[in-house]
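4.2 Preliminary Data

To establish feasibility before requesting continued support, the project team ran the inverse folding procedure on a target of 476 residues. The structure was first converted into the token representation described in Section 3, and no sequence information of any kind was made available to the design step. The complete token record follows.
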């Protein structure tokens, strides 16, 4: 009998299956294209790694309570795999979807599984190909009791934090796991956009050569900001193109793709009315990059935007601005998770999120340990910036973010994610915003009413028309 069944052997499924085998679990694999499963099992060459041609035999080979992990393309493919195995599962079994499902699809599948008395766990997985092979971050949500039945197997699979804890923990009810993964990807979008803006400044305005560029990112990858993505960028900057011997990154077309999870995050922030300006900025920036023909036409017709201001910000200003903006993006992610948790009754454990993202995850960064500590101590605190320790990280860098953003504006260098982070930071701390003017205008043209600062209630004023018009009286 096998400890875990993996359905779907793409990049992620294959590497997770090999990881499961490495950590001592007995593995059953199934794939739509069956040859792939049998070829993989032959490669492993161990009876504790077995391929199956039929879903019935695949499911029957698993020890109970069964742990069956779907690792197929999100969307209709997940429905197809789900329906293929559901008839063979029995009460007590746990079906886990490890794909990047939209949380609404997870809610639908969870309800369908419940009818069949099968526990359904939507689980975000992070770490990419290498993470899957060497230890991913796992974000399971759904039936809490079902999670306890499979927890030890998932803990074996997951990456480890420096203190030995696993990069897996229960995220919350129903679709919480996939929601957390969506926000993880939203943060990943912003982080990459911020890094791209930081690279743009050094490469195209400061005029750094590739060695200096890599060094700048290496020096920024320290202390609380030591992270996978800053390290990745540093590394990428050192890789030459075998054909031209130039840095490979310079030979790559400036058109950013994506699979939509960043857009989902921005949409959710808009829908729930919570600060998500950095997510929206990152998605817009990718969209604009894809408008390449239009950009080339505008550059030709209107000229490129460069203005050369007198002085370049110091290296420390560039670095601290990046650090502050990165932290603000995470803060927006955690604030969104808190609001979603209340709105959808996910009961997300934010400290567990901060724990799991510390290792294996693409968004792993050292300051998450500080955030986790604060969240464990005070889980009700409504925004990460309200933790004095976290605010101190930003406060120390606020001036740098302001200087860098202002410099980028004067230079004509688009820095939408830095600017969005700064505007959020400034707006968040305003006791009084100019929204009173918006309310006055709404009431003036649409009688939408307003609330007052000095008493409860809803008010309407007959504002004089700016063009001197009067509402015609009905003729008597
Ligand atoms: N790549 C990453 O870094 C990453 C990270 C985290 C999560 N994820 C998520 O993990 C899941 C798997 O990703 P992936 O990168 O390994 O590859 P993928 O290309 O998204 O999925 C490939 C797998 O899906 C199967 N599949 C496709 N259509 C199917 C259908 N209609 N019915 C049954 N099976 C079908 C494929 O089977 P065949 O071999 O027969 O084509 C293959 O096993 C996705 O949901 C993805 O979003 C990916």
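Position-by-position output of the design step:
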């Amino acid at each position: 009998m096998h400890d875990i069944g993996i359905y779907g052997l793409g990049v992620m499924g294959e590497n997770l299956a090999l990881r499961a085998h490495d950590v001592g679990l007995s593995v059953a694999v199934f794939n739509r294209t069956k040859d792939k499963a049998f070829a993989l099992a032959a490669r492993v060459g161990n009876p504790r790694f077995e391929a199956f041609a039929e879903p019935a035999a695949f499911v029957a080979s698993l020890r109970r309570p069964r742990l069956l992990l779907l690792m197929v393309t999100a969307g209709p493919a997940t429905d197809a795999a789900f329906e293929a195995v559901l008839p063979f599962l029995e009460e007590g079994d746990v079906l886990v979807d490890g794909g990047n499902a939209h949380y609404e699809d997870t809610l639908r599948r969870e309800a369908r599984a419940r009818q069949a008395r099968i526990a359904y766990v939507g689980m975000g997985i992070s770490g990419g190909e290498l993470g899957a092979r060497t230890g991913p971050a796992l974000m399971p949500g759904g039936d809490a009791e079902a999670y306890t039945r499979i927890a030890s197997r998932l803990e074996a699979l997951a990456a480890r934090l420096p203190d030995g804890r696993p990069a897996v923990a229960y995220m919350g009810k129903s679709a919480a796991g996939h929601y957390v993964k969506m926000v993880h990807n939203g943060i990943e979008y912003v982080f990459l956009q911020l890094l791209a803006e930081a690279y743009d400044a050094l490469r195209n305005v400061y005029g750094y050569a590739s060695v200096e560029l890599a060094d700048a990112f290496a020096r920024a990858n320290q202390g609380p900001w030591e992270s996978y993505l800053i390290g990745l960028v540093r590394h990428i900057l050192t890789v030459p193109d075998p054909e031209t011997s130039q840095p490979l990154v310079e030979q790559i077309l400036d058109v950013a793709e994506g699979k939509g999870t960043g857009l989902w995050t921005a949409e959710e922030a808009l829908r729930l009315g919570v600060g998500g300006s950095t997510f929206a900025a990152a998605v817009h920036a990718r969209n604009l990059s894809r408008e390449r023909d239009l950009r080339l036409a505008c550059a030709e017709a209107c000229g490129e935007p460069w203005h050369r201001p007198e002085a370049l910000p110091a290296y420390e200003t560039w670095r601290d601005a990046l650090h502050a903006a990165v932290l603000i993006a995470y803060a927006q992610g955690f604030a969104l998770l808190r609001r979603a948790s209340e709105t959808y009754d996910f009961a997300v454990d934010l400290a567990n999120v901060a724990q799991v993202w510390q290792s294996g995850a693409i968004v792993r960064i050292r300051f998450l340990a500080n955030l986790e500590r604060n969240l464990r101590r005070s889980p009700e605190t409504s925004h990460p910036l309200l933790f004095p320790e976290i605010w101190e990280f930003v406060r120390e860098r606020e001036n740098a973010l302001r200087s860098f953003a202002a410099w980028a504006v004067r230079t004509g260098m688009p820095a939408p994610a830095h600017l969005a982070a700064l505007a959020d930071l400034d707006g968040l701390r305003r006791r009084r915003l100019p929204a009173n003017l918006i309310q006055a205008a709404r009431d003036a043209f649409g009688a939408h009413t307003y609330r007052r600062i000095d008493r409860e209630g809803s008010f309407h004023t007959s504002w004089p028309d700016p063009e001197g018009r009067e509402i015609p009286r009905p003729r008597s």
